[in-house]
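Hi everyone,

Forwarding the result from last night's run.
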Amino acid sequence: MSGSDPEKSAPEGIRLNKYIASSGICSRREADKLIESGKVSVNGVVADLGTRVLEGDSVEVEGRSVTPEDSMIYIAFNKPLGITCTTDRRDPSNIIDYINFSERIFPIGRLDKNSSGLILLTNNGDIVNTLLRSENGHEKEYVVTIDRPYDKEFIKTMSTGVPVLGRMTLPAEVIPVNAKTFRIILKQGMNRQIRRMCEYLGYKVTRLKRIRFMNIKLGDLETGKWRYLTAAEKKELIK
């Protein structure tokens, strides 16, 4: 008699440890330890090793919602000028209608309507605040063009910090490109930060494009197009 598939012959749903492991946060063995220590709940009830997860169940590990990674969507989009990073469909320039993705997604952070370049979108609400939290120091890189040539003092001041919205910006890496263009790597995300920094020094931004968010690069992705993140990109982002 041939052996049977334990998942097919088992009761409805999937084993809790498999469900947790498929979220990417730990292995099945580590999931078992979390379950045994009472740190896992299903639909608000502390689970045990025999618990199985059905479609629609809510699973939490140490108070944090967990969803299998294969149901998570992460895409990189090269935002054109004029598109607004809002999920408000009443705004005719909203990013959601522009992309017209088949499932519900939302942007991670934002780019000004008059800025272009890399913006990430996902259906994973748990990851958004972590990625945007300034104290986590995630790098964001931009190419910026201003209205007139800058000097060494401009680069130095932009690098060390200027007052924006009542506080000093954190140190940033600023790399000259040509007389009016530079790259800047920020580890914070204040509202219209780069534009405000330049305005404080008497310059006006004429072009601003984000080319990198953490480990994810815009590369040769065409304006107005999107792509799924690679497995390596997702792994680093989630980590």
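The longest strand covers residues 205-213.

Cheers,
N.
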